[in-house]
Write a structure and sequence with these properties.
The chain has about 270 residues and is of the alpha+beta class. Strands 1, 2, 3, 4, 5, 6, 7, 8, 9 and 10 form a ten-stranded mixed β-sheet that branches. A hairpin with a 6-residue loop joins β9 and β10. The C terminus is likely disordered.
């Protein structure tokens, strides 16, 4: 397969989920996904990207560029490609998706995070000339079975009737279940779809420093919480089972059931 022959077109949610569950390091799907895009070579689906918004769309864009609204930007939810693809394939796929956005939407800004907490400084975005705007510290829980648990779904650990959506497990709950609590960096990237004049205006109004040098591996840092004292200390990495799915996520469970149902239907009709 020649990566230069790659074309991008919309696909169904189920088609996207099949590839994501087979190839992506994180199985939790964003709830606010509006576009599922597939990268094809000779009609073979070799890559998937989802576009939409994170958990707080208005807050996110107003923090980045106060004059914009949710109608002005997309956030990359998932991007993955088959393992057999050459090393530069993600950069080519990303550039074709950007062209698709230009041709089919009125979006002005494409935003994304690179999961530094999982060892990813965002090299694919750097290669695609995204601008880097600094980082935030973020939390991650590792269950007693080695699964990654996002803070958004960690409230399932608590059985208290008082626990509400967004509840973070207490130190006592973590210790009782044998979970670990880590902190690491998320790196902020943006690509401007708008013209140069508006780009200049947006850069001027943004509180972020978009001229910050790109982060490299040396910028990766992790902290782990002591389950006895609650104190934080530096650690060299996060240890987790890379093959495990996050069974604490209702979104993951729903998506797995959707895929299973469609595969059953396909087998039935193929038969």
């Amino acid at each position: 397969m020649n990566i230069t022959d790659l074309v991008v077109r919309p696909i169904s949610e189920v088609e996207a989920l099949e590839v994501i569950f087979d190839t992506h390091y994180s199985k939790i799907m964003p709830r606010l996904t509006t576009h599922y895009l597939g990268g094809f070579i000779d009609d073979k689906l070799v890559g998937v990207m989802t576009l939409g918004w994170g958990t707080r769309p208005v807050h996110t864009i107003k923090l980045l560029f106060p004059s914009l609204g949710t109608q002005d930007y997309f956030e990359i939810g998932k991007m993955c490609m088959l393992e057999e693809m050459p090393t530069n394939s993600e950069s080519v796929f990303l550039s074709r998706v950007i062209q698709w956005i230009k041709d089919n939407t009125t979006i002005k800004v494409l935003f994304t995070w690179a999961d530094g907490i999982l060892g990813k400084p965002g090299y694919v975005y750097q290669a695609a000339n995204f601008m880097y705007g600094g980082f935030i510290w973020t939390d991650l829980y590792i269950s007693n079975t080695g699964e990654k648990v996002h803070p958004r779904t960690s409230q399932s650990l608590s059985k208290s009737d008082e626990a509400k959506y967004g509840h973070r497990p207490t130190l006592a709950e973590l210790k009782a279940k044998g979970w670990n609590h880590y902190r690491g960096k998320q790196f902020r990237y943006v690509y401007f779809i708008c013209d140069k004049k508006e780009k200049k205006q947006l850069l001027a109004e943004s509180p972020m420093d978009w001229k910050t040098p790109y982060p490299k591996d040396a910028a990766l840092e992790w902290k782990i919480q002591n389950m006895d004292t609650g104190e934080w200390s530096d650690t060299d990495s996060i240890i987790y089972d890379k093959t495990a799915l996050n069974t604490h996520s209702t979104t993951t469970t729903r998506n797995r059931k959707t895929i299973a149902a469609v595969k059953t239907m396909r087998r039935f009709f193929d038969f």
